Model the fold of this input.
Amino acid sequence: MDGHTDIKTLEHFIGGAWVGASGGETFEVLNPLDDSHYVHAAKGTGADVRAAVAAAKAAFTNYKETTPTERERWLLRIAEIMEARQKDLIDCLIDEIGSPVQKAMFEFTKGLTMLRAAAGMCRNVRGETIPSDRPGTFSMSIREPLGVVAVITPFNVPLIKTTRLVANALAVGNTVVHLPSEMAPHLSILFAEIVAEAGVPAGAYNVVTGLGVEIGDDLTGHADVDFVTFTGSTVVGQHINEICAKNKTPATLELGGKSATLVMADADLDTVMPLAARSIFMFGGQACIGSSRFYVERPIYNEFVKRFSMIAGKVGMGDLRDPATVIAPIISQRQRQRVKDHIADAVAKGAHVAAGGAFEGNRCQPTLLTDVSETMTVCKTETFGPVTSIYPIDSYEEGLEKANDSEYGLSSAIFTKNIDRAFHFARNINAGMCHINGPTIHDEAHVPFGGNGESGVGREGTDADLEAMTELKWVTVQL
Done:
């Protein structure tokens, strides 16, 4: 695009209407492949956030009384319209955040699943009868929606997170104010267009675009926000956690990771290698559940490194619309510098680069590091790029100990034919998720998705969100 003439300007979606920022300002969103201008978006203010919360609160009065049939119909209609607008959504995922087409298709398909699974929640908002010690008393619990849910989504899987968290909140009778990542606002605006077309009542879903550092606190700290769900960095998550604790606002936080994979000597490397590559190279390693630590038993360590290096050298870095392309551009200049710094620090302190290590344009080559020590930043800190470290271990016990030597606890994996060892790992790894003979990157609509420690608070998913986004009320009737 030449100049700014063809560049779209996005508006907020508040109370069912499209409105510009109250301050009249916009901000630029860049295509991460070449840093060309992609869209302009309304630069939200505190006043815009307050308007969106007020719209959501006003809509809640009627929305909480909608029937399961109505909410099911809206959610399934959103999925239908999404299918009709597949090209728009795929193009957005490619051009706004640099998704290779295969990852974009994966995300699109998963988003449809999230919506349809949420539709199934509508009839499960239920309580129970409770025995009472008081004669002639009918005692029961009823489950009610909380009210206004603040949804803050990341740039890396914006469609998966938007469909899951927004749909789950709407399914159980809440209304939503959505603050998307400033690097992926267009995706959420497309979703808002779809929600409006589906006939969801005005004000039930609101989107404010802007810079999280400027308006995030206006949303998470608002007295009329009844629940916060955030996906993003651990540093920001901690800040939100403190705000929510002060206001006694319940929250789920899905934060960073430094996920470990153990590869035992009895593992079948023919099976392991493509899964290992998927678990760190998908979307250029910009995944909180990516495996950035591999602990490999010494008898197969050299062969593992050799095979992994061969794969890394062949991973597709071509046109993002070519199905063979795997590696995405790193989203921003700041994040690219972080990846470069992690690699440079490791090399300066004696790490060996077994594959990759350099940038091609805005993309980092698939990078494997060996001889990594605890003095190196990359050892303990999340890189958020296609960079992983491979460590030799002399026993399963050593591998488990090293895997648990982390502040993070998101995903984990073990490859072995020993069922006892596999289940021992599953029971003893300090992570919210564990995959036996599968990659750390895995998600489904109904599973309890989330982590421990610095990786977050609470779980996402239909069952987990149904509990988190509603509350029980005890009711008695004296007969």
